[in-house]
Each structure stands twice: as structure tokens, then as C-alpha cells.
Amino acid sequence: MQTIQRKLSEKKHIALVAHDHRKADLLAWTKQNQAQLANHTLYATGTTGHLLNQETGLDIIQMISGPMGGDQQIGALISECKIDVLVFFWDPLNAVPHDPDVKALLRIASVWNIPMALNRATADFIFSSALIAQSTDIEIPDYQSYINARKIL
């Protein structure tokens, strides 16, 4: 598939997601990075968003709970180019009933080439990068060219 450039602004749209066994870790990471996160627009799945808002006071746009479709809502926002960074403290050792939704979210974030942290170390690397606070370009699929090519067939 062909690609095009997408400009990420200085103020990123960041999705925060955590499995139950990783919520405390994401909360600790969020508190550690609270001043930096406050400069961006934050989204989260329901339970995680509620916890982070209650404990930090950060303004967070909340989706519904992950098992109820919140992962899919975040994925839809990614595919609409409305999310720039995904921080998902995933628990690979604990099976969850909505595992297909989780895999779909990870897949769509990869397809749309957004920075994605699945653990604290990667989140630290992303948030210590100067690019988190700068405008930058990323390559994304050229969906319009894909659609136009399909019309020919």
C-alpha cells in the first residue's frame, strides 16, 4: 500500500489503556509524567480513565470500558487519525475475554503507524523523546489511493 505523510502537532492526542493487573503501574507512570501529559489531549478506556482522572485530576476523554467496546472505540479513533500515540500497559500473561479486541487495537495502531508503548520502559522512551512535544510527520497508509485503485478493478 502507498503511504502519505501525516503531521502530528505539538499537542498530541494520547490514548491511555491498561489491563486490570497493569492499572496500578499505569497510574504510577501517569503520576510521574503528569505535568507532561497535561499538555496533551488524553483519552482512555472507561475504568482506566476513571481511575486516572480520580487519582490525578487530569482531564481525560473517557470511552466505555475495554471489555464493553472501549478498545474498539480507541481503534476507531486511530483509524480516523484522531489518536497520535497509544500507551497500552498490556498484560500478556493474563488472558482476557476481549482478547480479540485487544489484538485488533494493537493491529490497527501498527497499521496506522502511531507510536505505541506496551510497557513502562517503552512509554518512558517515547515520552523522553523531544518529538513528543514537537510537530512531526509520520507515514500512514494512503487510504484514498487504495480506494481509487479498487474502483478500477
Automatic annotation (TrEMBL):
CC terms in the record's Gene Ontology section: cytosol
Keyword Lyase: yes
InterPro entries: Methylgl_synth, Methylglyoxal_synth_AS, MGS-like_dom, MGS-like_dom_sf
Domain (MGS-like): residue spans on this chain: 6-153
Transmembrane segments: none
Domain of life: Bacteria
Protein name stated in the entry: Methylglyoxal synthase
Pfam (any one): MGS
Active site residues of this protein: 71
Role noted for this protein: Catalyzes the formation of methylglyoxal from dihydroxyacetone phosphate.
EC identifiers of the protein: 4.2.3.3
Keywords from the UniProt entry: Lyase
Binding positions (substrate): 19, 23, 45-48, 65-66, 98
Organism in which the protein naturally occurs: Vibrio ruber (strain DSM 16370 / JCM 11486 / BCRC 17186 / CECT 7878 / LMG 23124 / VR1)
GO terms of molecular function: methylglyoxal synthase activity
Catalyzed reactions: dihydroxyacetone phosphate = methylglyoxal + phosphate
Gene it is expressed from: mgsA
UniProt-listed SUPFAM superfamilies: Methylglyoxal synthase-like
Family annotation (CDD domains): MGS
Cross-referenced PROSITE patterns: METHYLGLYOXAL_SYNTH (PS01335), MGS (PS51855)
Family: Belongs to the methylglyoxal synthase family.
Biological process terms in GO annotation: methylglyoxal biosynthetic process
